[in-house]
Design goal:
binds S-adenosylmethionine, globular, two-stranded antiparallel ribbon, two-stranded antiparallel sheet, 8 strands, 18 helices, H3K4_H4K5_MeTrfase, single chain, mainly alpha
């Protein structure tokens, strides 16, 4: 089952009455992809690429009816997911095999949820989903199974991401859901629409257990523990967690005692605004408590910014978050969420056409951060970041060679300094062509895109020239490495 956070409902269709609507999920025009109309409203359409799996379209039927009720507030994602699962299970178009797979999944219930607040949340979700389902399908016996469905979702759902790893909602797949969690996983789950891929990160022997990571395993220990407890109801005792809160993810650049005094006011402010969250715990000394308040503030700010539509505003605020990390004097650039904020900032800058600044941030991630957070060259996250960098280098190079395009001032300056973009483009793509097969498999969409671009560059530049470029007589690669140090934060 696939579900999505943001409900678009029938508004998408009515917003453009004269235009044949495209996909309400990914917003593509649907040309050449094929779109299917919702079986509920018969209007909103979803494409078979990103918003695939008919289940998604069927799930919309409930939302679509419910969203016509103006008295209803926006549905929480847990309620939405339960409604979609109930709707899927009662439909005739879901295969019996799919249904049997879902029915076999175990569910969490009051006995496995430990904290009172989480039980309360679970009961509210069950009651809301049952009530809403009853309004849409008054006589459907699936309503009585909603408690079990909520428990199944709580126990088994994985974060559904775009191919570039942006969270989109949740996914429930009987096979992917059979893997247990480790913060030091030997495999990863990737969404390569319409398929789910499970890829190994290290050699796995026959009969060895396959572990995936349900959460961002680059987060510090207490945050990982808190997330797994709240979302999946278990205490993680994986090989990394057994070593406690003193691994690389938890390290500070300097002792928390040296936290910049400017930030102490911020800490007091943050502590006053937010009750202590176990996810933010660092230690019991005054300095550690201050720092945990700052950390909580930073995580919450960042999470709030992820869905901000206004790019310019988001860039301003993300830069602010990064400045706080930098000014703290204790935050290493590899400690979360500093590292993730940088990646989001680069993506936002790209959307705004600020190629030069985005390139410098991406170079920092490429040279100084990713090799530490993701030690394997072919780690899927690292491969995706590298792919973003390669595409941005190509875009910068093309913009400077196309008189019809406005060149970003940062890129213009690089051209003036006679930087040869082709050196890093070729070196990165050549290696990426190999790594992407290991990370995503030879048949994945990403592999196809990486190989196509590599081929274009090979044909465009010519093998003879590329051999000279590989020799790099003017030391362009060394110059490129320096970019990682250009920006202050
Ligand atoms: C997707 S299921 C994994 C399959 C699970 N073994 C089962 O049979 O349902 C996720 C659930 O398995 C349990 N689980 C997964 N990894 C675990 C771990 N490392 N330690 C303890 N429980 C774990 C948790 O209850 C979690 O909600």
């Amino acid at each position: 089952m696939w579900t999505q956070k943001a409900a678009r409902g029938c508004a998408t269709h009515s917003a453009s009455p004269n235009k044949e609507p495209g996909c309400a999920g990914c917003q593509s025009d649907g040309a050449g992809i094929g779109v299917k109309a919702c079986t509920g409203c018969k209007k909103v359409k979803y494409c078979s690429r990103v918003c695939q799996k008919q289940a998604w379209t069927r799930g919309h039927k409930n939302e679509c009816t419910l969203l016509k009720d103006p008295s209803l507030p926006p549905l929480p994602s847990s309620v939405r997911a339960a409604l979609q699962l109930a709707s899927l299970m009662s439909s005739t178009s879901a295969s019996e095999e799919d249904k049997a797979g879902i029915l076999r999944l175990e569910a969490h219930d009051r006995s496995t949820i430990e904290q009172y607040s989480d039980i309360e949340q679970y009961e509210v979700t069950v009651a809301s989903a049952r009530d809403l389902f009853g309004r849409v399908s008054p006589d459907d016996p699936e309503a009585f199974k909603i408690r079990d469905y909520v428990g199944k979702i709580l126990r088994n759902s994985l974060t559904l991401t775009t191919p570039t790893l942006d969270p989109m909602g949740i996914a429930l797949d009987p096979i992917a859901c059979s893997a247990n969690h480790s913060c030091n996983p030997n495999a990863s789950v990737l969404f390569d629409c319409p398929r789910i891929l499970m890829r190994s990160l290290v050699p796995i022997k026959k009969d060895e257990e396959v572990f995936i990571s349900y959460i961002d395993n680059t987060d510090p220990y207490y945050r990982r523990q808190a997330q797994l407890k709240t979302r999946y109801c278990f205490k993680c005792e994986c090989s990394k967690c057994r070593l406690g809160p003193n691994q690389r993810e938890d390290k500070w650049a300097q002792s928390p005692e040296t936290l910049n005094t400017k930030l102490l006011n911020l800490a007091a402010l943050a502590a006053a605004r937010f009750p202590t969250d176990p996810a933010d715990y660092i230690g019991d000394s005054k300095a550690e408590k201050d720092l945990s308040a700052v950390q909580g503030n930073i995580y919450r700010n960042y999470e709030g910014l992820r869905n901000l539509k206004d790019n310019a505003q988001a860039i301003k605020e993300l830069e602010n978050v990064m400045r706080i990390c930098k000014d703290s004097g204790v935050w290493p650039i590899t400690r979360q969420p500093y590292a993730n904020v940088r990646v989001d900032l680069s993506a936002r800058m790209l959307d705004e056409g600020r190629l030069g600044l985005a390139l410098f941030q991406m170079a920092k991630t490429y040279f100084l951060i990713d090799p530490i957070l993701y030690p394997q060259d072919f780690h899927p996250v690292r491969v995706l970041h590298t792919w973003g960098l390669a595409k941005t280098l190509v875009a910068a190079y093309s913009s400077g060679n196309d008189p019809s395009q406005e060149v970003d001032p940062g890129v213009e300056e690089l051209f003036q300094r006679e930087f040869d973009f082709v050196v890093p483009i070729w070196r990165i793509l050549k290696k990426l062509s190999v790594d992407v097969v290991k990370s995503h498999g030879s048949g994945s969409n990403l592999t196809f895109m990486v190989h196509s671009l590599t081929q274009q560059v090979r044909e465009g530049v010519g093998m003879e020239n590329l051999r000279e470029i590989e020799r790099d007589p003017l030391h362009m690669w060394r110059e490129f490495e320096r970019w990682a140090h250009y920006l202050q934060y």
